[in-house]
Design brief:
The protein is an all-alpha fold. The protein is 72% helix and 0% strand. Helix 1 crosses helix 13, helix 6 crosses helix 7 and helix 17 packs parallel to helix 19. Its main location: membrane.
């Protein structure tokens, strides 16, 4: 996504600085708190539903014998049909990321997000009535189409309200809350299985129907309460709005929109890092119940164990990152957690150790996602598009023929983390060098076209 970036000159930055300096700290604190309460709870709930809706195939496909429910009804056990249905969601999800940002600016946050959420809610509801795996595939493609503009829009909106060193905690809280809620999808899915036979429908039909109805309700709530961009908001006073815009302008000079250029897209190919972060996250989301069931746990316990308590890890790393104003070291630590976790899951003999490996992988990947978004938050659409590539990668390398240990997928995930560490080292060196040259007065133009701007590493 294009970053909010007006080429502010020195006088504009100095004016913004004077405005912020003159503000009462208590007034500033109350304003930020008001923004937090307006943005984060609803956005977290919306993304939680999106996360559940895109990954809930795994909830319906937990049986290692593949002999019950949707797997048999739709012939998903044949060849690689499950991976195909999971994978094709990401094709429109990637292709429509950038076009959706143009529509976001045209329709505005409220209307565009309502269209996206209502669209995939209707599709999700329709998935409860499909009769063949081909119909399910079409629904998954439509689901990817409607969700394409959703997550980057939410992240973009959040980053336009806060300073850089306030962003990761908010992204982590937003992402973490949604992941924790989404993590309970296994428990929710198990509870809904008791509806089996009601209305002549199987339990997997009811999971889609109930989640579809919930999504449609949230689309209505989104239209009523979602926050627009700062300069178009309707819940702050004029003084509070000016404060928000001045703080962002002073911090990075991006309170007003700029156009996408090819140079910017090429400059932010660091989005490969986001692919490396999302790949294990999607792998865990789609295959965790299958792997757990292969360890000998029942369907019920597999669903319950797919809700690991990794929330503390995610928010702790985010808090430390914003506190120290460092990104790269904490991303590297979490990449190593994923690497070790995948190795344990693939090669350990004891099931308890293998489950601990899944825990490490989930904890590391859930923390890396908001960390990478905060690391290069100025190109959200390009970054999130690469995240969709990570989803395709995850659903294709964890192959049916590799069940139950999925060693091919384990090594692919480990390779992604090694690539993450290499890219992190290269980009960190590049940004550190740019910062040093600017401090030494050897650069003719300010970084990112913004006076006073330095990269956060």
């Amino acid at each position: 996504m294009e970053k909010y970036s007006e080429k502010a000159d020195v006088e504009e930055v100095e004016h913004a600085e004077l405005q912020v300096r003159d503000v009462d700290p208590e007034f500033e604190r109350k304003t930020i708190r008001r923004v937090d309460w307006r943005l984060l709870p609803l956005m977290s709930a919306l993304y939680a539903v999106a996360l559940i809706d895109r990954t809930n195939l795994s909830v319906k496909f937990p049986n290692s014998a593949r002999t019950a429910g949707m797997a048999v009804d739709l012939d998903l056990t044949v060849s690689n049909r499950y991976s195909t249905v999971s994978c094709l969601y990401f094709v429109p999800y990637i292709l429509f990321q950038l076009p959706s940002n143009i529509l976001l600016k045209f329709f505005g946050v409220r209307l565009w997000l309502t269209i996206c959420i209502l669209g995939w809610g209707i599709v999700q509801l329709g998935m409860g009535f499909v009769k063949t795996w081909g119909q399910l595939t079409v629904c998954r493609v439509l689901l990817g189409l409607f969700e394409a503009g959703f997550f980057p829009a939410l992240v973009f909106v959040i980053t336009t309200w806060y300073k850089r060193h306030e962003v990761q905690k908010r992204l982590a809280l937003f992402y973490l809350t949604s992941v924790v809620i989404g993590g309970f999808s296994g428990i929710i899915g198990y509870a809904i299985t008791f509806l089996k036979g009601k209305g002549g429908l199987d339990s997997w039909n009811w999971i889609f129907i109930i989640q579809g109805i919930l999504t449609i309700v949230l689309a209505i709530l989104n239209h009523l309460f979602i926050a627009e961009f700062p300069q178009r908001n309707n819940f702050l006073t004029v003084e509070q709005t000016n404060l928000i815009l001045s703080r962002v302008e002073l911090d990075r000079g991006d309170s007003l929109p700029d156009e996408i250029t090819l140079a910017k897209v090429l400059h932010h190919l660091v989005s490969l890092m986001f692919m490396c972060a999302t790949m294990p996250a999607y792998a865990v989301a789609y295959f965790v119940t299958i792997i757990l069931n292969s360890m000998g746990w029942s369907v019920r316990n597999s669903l319950l164990l797919s809700t690991p308590p990794y929330a503390i890890s995610c928010f702790t790393f985010a808090w430390l990152s914003d506190k120290t104003k460092k990104r790269a070291p904490f991303i590297a630590v979490q990449a190593v957690m994923i690497l070790v976790g995948m190795a344990l899951t693939g090669y350990a003999k004891q099931n308890g150790v293998r489950y601990f490996g899944l825990f490490l992988s989930a904890a590391g990947s859930s923390g890396c996602v908001p960390a990478v978004l905060a690391y290069r938050a100025v190109s959200t659409a390009v970054i999130v598009s690469a995240g969709g590539v990570g989803g395709i990668f995850a659903t294709t390398v964890f192959r049916e023929q590799d069940f139950p240990r999925y060693l091919n997928g384990v090594w692919a995930t480990i390779g992604c983390q090694l690539l993450m560490i290499v890219l992190l080292a290269i980009t960190s060196w590049h940004f550190a060098r740019k910062n040093r040259l600017l401090r030494e007065g050897k650069l003719l133009a300010p970084l990112e076209g913004t006076p006073g701007f330095y990269y956060t590493i």
